[in-house]
Amino acid sequence: MALLPKISDFLLEAGCDEAGRGCLAGPVVAAAVILPPDFHHPWLNDSKQVGKSQRNALRSVIEKEALYWAVGSCSPAEIDKINILNASILAMHRALEKLSTPPQFIAVDGNRFKAFGEIPHKTEVKGDGRFLHIAAASILAKTHRDEWMETLHNQHPQYGWDKNAGYPTLSHRQAIREFGITIDHRKSFRLLPEQLLLF
Questions:
Q1: Is the predicted pLDDT of residue 196 greater than 90, yes or no?
Q2: Domains in the chain, ordered, with CATH?
Q3: Which element (helix H / strand E) includes 15?
Q4: Could you tell me which of 162, 179, 159, 180 has the C-alpha nearest to residue 171?
Q5: What is the pLDDT of residues 122-172, one digit of tens each?
Q6: How many CB atoms lie within 10 A of CB 64?
Q7: How many Å apart are CA 89 and CA 87, to the nearest integer?
Q8: 19 phi, psi to nearest 5 deg
Q9: How far is CA 100 from the centre of its chain?
Q10: DSSP H or E run through 68
């Protein structure tokens, strides 16, 4: 099914999405993207449905051809302070604030958002698989976050963040058991749930 260009009749409609919400470490990263009306790319879809090499290629295309785009983030310390939902929304607001031209309407992946000034918005569950600009935002959020985690991996190679991007894999949790946590871990998350203990 072809992805739709936008929700509203406004010309400048921004798509928003985040990446890293379910991770044990690293920031949550969000992107806001306003695409030209005629934008099309055969690979563009929800970032979880696109392979890494295609995601990276799409990032270049989106950053070159989007009318406006920006990325924002919230640190692990901020996530611990205000919780992951509020941090995800704040990261989206930070991305929207960085757009050189403000949008007239905001389309958000998911079902929770807080008003960004006076700009109307609408949430869309699974919007990253239904709307081009939300899919584009998901690609930028994911690729920028992965790049960030690869940099953090150089500081803490034992956790394998270049491969798991901070997600709760068995190897990541085993490394937490063995080496403890870093400043980049989210202390408010259940880093070692009982059911995943290794004996």
A1: no
A2: 13-196 (3.30.420.10)
A3: strand 13-19
A4: 159
A5: 999 999 999 999 999 999 999 999 999 999 999 999 999 999 999 999 999
A6: 8
A7: 5
A8: -140, 145
A9: 20
A10: strand 68-74
